[in-house]
Design goal:
Helices cover 43% and strands 21% of the residues. It is of the alpha/beta class and 284 residues long. It has two domains: 142 residues, Periplasmic binding protein-like II (D-Maltodextrin-Binding Protein, domain 2, 3-Layer(aba) Sandwich), CATH 3.40.190.10; 96 residues, Periplasmic binding protein-like II (D-Maltodextrin-Binding Protein, domain 2), CATH 3.40.190. Helix 7 links the parallel strand 8 and strand 9. Helix 3 runs antiparallel to helix 11. The termini are far apart.
């Protein structure tokens, strides 16, 4: 009689343990899935997800009729995916959102990102893909030669808010009248409508903008100094660094054999620009 309550309690404990076991296993399974690295996920799913930036020539072009993607970054990500015999999934994004998409695990790769310290707090970066000089699209009749020519109170400069274009403008032309607009399209519109003398942008963006609309003016790279920043591939920050290591090896090989240069030039030409429009300061 004295052992009966003990037996009941033991039975209840065993039942509770039996009920808890599946939940515990489920929790472990969910934890294991949640901790899966980019390298492991690509090996398992055979899918590489890229932040696809609509209209960002020469990196991405989208055929609105067919939905097909093309451009320098499209050629590159297809080549990366082939390492795993994987397919590419294009996730619509923007330059700003691609950092958050990488951080949240929504995408695996973000192309053409300047590795700033602020971004490096959230995501990782590969070795540089290209070295990107900064300059300005200048309205017709305004042809500065140096940053000193831009750095004057009467010069009206526009740029896109929160970008490295804005950093360059405020660093090297602090005395100019600088207006930071919501995005690059707004900056181009301000220049086109005569509300600005210059739009400070990275060389690649300036070349392709003028290819679309030559009436905007002329792209110049100011001297004293020539301002250049590396452009890298953004990746998710995670303990397993194998994916970034593969990308670094891929960049070293394809830069060495001139393939990165070929992909970039093909993307520039696809935007409507010409080989002679590519400044010598732009290196691949």
């Amino acid at each position: 009689m004295t052992n009966q309550p003990t037996r009941r309690m033991a039975g209840l404990a065993a039942g509770a343990a039996a009920l808890a076991a599946p939940a515990l296993l489920l929790g472990r399974s969910a934890h294991a899935e949640g901790s899966e690295s980019t390298f492991e996920r690509i090996q398992r799913t055979k899918v590489v997800r890229v932040a696809a930036l609509t209209g960002e020539a020469p990196y991405f072009f989208k055929d609105l009729a067919t939905g097909a993607w093309s451009g320098a970054s499209v050629d590159m990500v297809k080549n990366v995916a082939a390492i795993w015999d994987a397919k590419v999934e294009y996730v619509p994004s923007t330059y700003g959102n691609s950092v958050m998409d990488l951080q949240s695990g929504k995408v695996d790769i973000g192309f053409s990102l300047n590795p700033t310290p602020q971004r490096a707090l959230s995501i990782g970066f590969t070795r540089p893909m290209i070295t990107h000089p900064f300059g300005a699209i200048c309205r017709k009749g305004f042809e500065p030669k140096s940053w000193d020519d831009l750095n004057k109170p009467e010069v009206r400069i526009v740029t896109d808010l929160g970008s490295t274009n804005e950093v360059a403008a405020r660093r090297f032309a602090p005395n100019a009248k600088i207006t930071s607009l919501q995005n690059r399209d707004d900056a181009i519109l301000a220049l086109q409508s005569g509300r600005a003398d210059a739009d400070v942008v990275a060389a690649m963006l300036g070349i392709t903008a003028l290819a679309k609309n030559p009436a905007l003016g002329k792209f110049i790279i100011p001297t004293g100094p020539v301002v250049s920043l590396p452009s890298s591939i953004g990746v998710r920050r995670e303990p397993d660094t194998r994916f970034r290591e593969v990308l670094d090896a891929w960049l070293l090989m394809n830069t060495g054999i001139g393939q990165i240069r070929e992909w970039m030039i093909n993307g520039i030409l696809h935007s409507g620009a010409h080989r002679e429009d590519i400044p010598p300061e732009l290196t691949f």
